[in-house]
Amino acid sequence: MRTQTDRLGPPPAITLETAARLHLGFIDPNGSLGRAFGSVGLSIEGHGTRITARRSQQQTPRIDGNITDDQRMRIAHHIAQLQNAFAIDQHIDIEVHDAPRAHTGLGSGTQLALAIGAAFVHIAGIEANTADIARILGRGARSGIGIHGFDHGGLIVDGGRNTASNDTSSMPPLLARQTFPDDWRVLLIDDTSRQGLHGDEERCGLASLAPFPAHLAAHLSHLVLMRILPAVAEHDFAIFADAISDMQQTIGEYFAPVQGGVFASPAVARALDAVAAEQQAGIGQTSWGPVGFAFVASAQRALAAAQRVSGNASLSFSIAVARNRGASWRAADDRRHRDANAA
């Protein structure tokens, strides 16, 4: 998403919406051929982030919405980062209308940061792209799925980071983007009693892992190039589901010592196994979880899968479709902001 000053001037208020993402797996966490990580992911509807940003005269931003104290602090910090990076005394207030539960594997931190950044540069009339914003806000340290998904949506493959480069600010390059079939569905299962690894625990966990075997990286590369991408291009659900399950099992076993198993939540694992026992499904966990997913071939099959596994009080279920477009924004009414300042 590239933004620049409009001929009529930047809007005083905008509403911006961006999708959640599923991180379907790393390709080579060890960088055995000189590129670390590399990722496969998918943008999905229904669990996105929607904010309204308004130009303000107050130095301290007003941040409203159903968000945690940690999210509120992050938003204020992101605004300060943007002001410093662009050397501009632009103040904005933020209202968060929708945001996924944090640290569940849906990429909420990156999407909220990019939404704040895109809103800021729109209102300030600054020309900047999503990669610029991500660098300023420190996003994309390992995976570029959230950043490329913000721009394009769909199924994304990124190329990870060049391990020989000292440039830690470069974004993982976009290698492939495909439109995901409209009729396929994703059953999402969230263990609401848990959060996925994040922050210092995530960094320490990654550092404690043994090197990722080169033969497994080769296997995952083969899966992505010769099974997952062709299956999506040809709408071959059987091959896609089998390949995703294979990739998830491989990478899940590698991360098991850190997260306590192939899945972070035993309850989610049991529910996904039950789905796979009843119908063909591509099952796995997005990022560190606890959200697990089951790709199924149709809306009817998704409903059947949800009915099969519902009943656990700690689990929540939802059915999602892919989002084959990037973030969107529109000018918003800033009347509420003016009225509040007048009061």
From TrEMBL:
UniProt superkingdom: Bacteria
GO molecular function terms attached to this record: ATP binding; kinase activity
UniProt-listed Pfam families: GHMP_kinases_C, GHMP_kinases_N
Keywords: Kinase, Transferase
Keyword Acetylation in record: no
UniProt domain GHMP kinase C-terminal: residue ranges: 229-309
Stretches assigned to the GHMP kinase N-terminal domain: 81-144
Keyword NADP: no
Stored InterPro entries: GHMP_kinase_C_dom, GHMP_kinase_N_dom, RFAP_synthase, Ribosomal_Su5_D2-typ_SF, Ribsml_uS5_D2-typ_fold_subgr
PANTHER family registered for this protein in UniProt: BETA-RIBOFURANOSYLPHENOL 5'-PHOSPHATE SYNTHASE, HOMOSERINE/4-DIPHOSPHOCYTIDYL-2-C-METHYL-D-ERYTHRITOL KINASE
Name of the protein in question: Beta-ribofuranosylaminobenzene 5'-phosphate synthase
Organism of provenance: Candidatus Burkholderia verschuerenii
Phylogenetic placement of the source organism: Bacteria, Pseudomonadati, Pseudomonadota, Betaproteobacteria, Burkholderiales
